[in-house]
Amino acid sequence: MLDERVIQSLKAADKPKKYADGGGLFLFIPVSGKKLWRMAYRFERKAKLLTFGEYPQVSLLAARQKRDEAKALIKAGLDPAERKKAERKKSADISFRSIALEWHGKETAHCRKKYRGFMLNNLEKYFFPVFGDKPLPEVEADDIMRAIEPLRESGMLRGGRRLTDICGQICRYAVATGKTAKDPTKKLPIPYRSKQAGHKSATIDEKMLGQIMVNLDRHEGYFPVKCALRLVPLLLVRSGELRCAKWPEFDLSRKLWIIPACRSHQPYDHIVPLAPQAIIILKELREYSGQGHLLFPGVKSPENPIDMSTITVSLRRRGYGDVKLSFDGFRQIAPRILASRGHEPAIVGTQLVQRGGQKSKFDPWQFLSERQAMMRDWAEYLYLLKDKAVSVKSQMEGRHAE
User: Fold this and answer.
1) Is the distance from CB of 196 to CB of 111 less than 8 angstroms?
2) Which fold has domain 4-86?
3) CA 36 to mean position of chain CA atoms
4) What would the mean pLDDT of 293-300 be, rounded to a whole number?
């Protein structure tokens, strides 16, 4: 039997040596001098070998515990080597690297080649070396902070925040596809997160919202962008869902937009009822882009959707006062206003795909008639505020003219 004092005194020889501990466990020391834990055993009359790691990272006590666990598996009729191989394969399938590459292949196909390259290069440079091989469910906020620490130390804080945004998208994709139950980026300290303009949306009052609706109508650039801006408050969907919208997903006769699961980042379709005001905008847009597949084709590359920043930057500029608009901003204020107008939280949450962490089977068609009525009420409310804002401005201009 070995003990710590003996192990520490062992040195490399001119040929590999083994030092037995008992029960098949032994310490193997090659000519390089490393001290490696191994276990010899027989399974189904075949000689086999297990590796437990290197001393002192794996202590004598830990090695003995691994040996005992392996012997228990053998007694139960299981091959510990095959069990270890299966666990390694399972861990590889849900490693951060594996999921990140899957996300990059599926969810960024619509992005420009240069931006896709930027994301992949930074994943390989910062995240993969630190926790790429770690199962994503085991990744913690501390791992992410260590990965981007070189950027913070060099004063590139903004770049670090961009990378945590990318990491957050990967984690949310993993949650949506059932690969993990948590998003570790939510536990990052505020300095590590991007500054979200939408956070100011809680200060928007009715007067602001009415003027914002007026501002959204005033966009004078690319017509599909103008339509997108007008649809943002009416549909209450996420940015990627709207930007990559396709005409075959829309059934204007039924007044429904059915976003397939592969695009909704959920394991089910997302059903969006269309208010009459949204139908009008969509019919106007169909005259422009209805011959193609996409609602919002790129200016230079019509086969691809318009760039994300084209909509988000235009949206921010249509704010009111100090309030800068975002997709999330509307999604944050809508529940509060809809609740005040008598709509049940469960119906609002279902429409915004806010399931409160429930893992029960979800029916995307649930409460459809109530959600249709709610979305019509929401659109009427917004347009009423818009009309009031226009009326107030007209009265003020009339007074100035006098």
Assistant:
1) no
2) Double Stranded RNA Binding Domain (3.30.160)
3) 40
4) 89
36 sits in the region (left: phi over 0; alpha: psi -120 to 50; else beta) called: beta
Cα–Cα distance for residue pair 331/201, rounded to 1 Å: 9
How many helices, marked H, and strands, marked E, lie in the chain?
A: 17, 7
Ramachandran angles phi, psi of 159, nearest 5°: -65, -40
Contact 307, 298 (CB under 8 A): yes
In the three-class reduction of DSSP (H, G, I as helix; E, B as strand; rest coil), residue 29 is classed as strand
Q: What is the SS3 assignment for 54?
A: strand
CATH of domain 198-401: 1.10.443.10
Laid out side by side, the sheet with 46-55 consists of 17-22, 25-29, 35-43, 46-55
Q: What CA dihedral angle connects 51, 53, 59 and 62, to 10 degrees?
A: -50
Number of neighbours of residue 375 by Cβ within 10 angstroms = 23
Q: Residue 173: what residue type?
A: Y
The residue-averaged pLDDT of 98-109 equals 85
Please provide the DSSP assignment of 305-353 as one string: BPPHHHHHHHHHTT-BTTB---HHHHHHHHHHHHHHTT--HHHHHHHTT
Distance CA 166, CA 100 (A): 9
The dihedral formed by the CA atoms of 338, 341, 346 and 347, expressed in degrees to the nearest 10: -80
For 23-62, letters b (16+ CB in 10 Å) and e give: ebbbbebeeeeebbbbbebeeeeeebebebeebeebebee
Q: Is the predicted pLDDT of residue 115 greater than 90, yes or no?
A: no
Measured CA to CA, the distance from residue 40 to residue 396 in angstroms comes to 90
Domains 4-86 and 198-401 belong to one CATH topology: no
The pLDDT tens digits of the residues spanning 14-44 come to 899 999 999 999 999 999 899 999 999 999 8
The domain spans of the chain are 4-86, 96-195, 198-401
- C-alpha 333/C-alpha 244 separation (Å) is 24
- Give the sheet arrangement for strand 250-251, strand by strand: 250-251, 256-259, 270-273
Q: What is the pLDDT of residue 26?
A: 94
Residue type, 259: I
Beta-strand runs (E) in 44-157: 46-55
CATH number for region 96-195: 1.10.150.130
Cα–Cα dist 30/27, whole Å: 10
Confidence of residue 355 (pLDDT cuts 50, 70, 90): very low
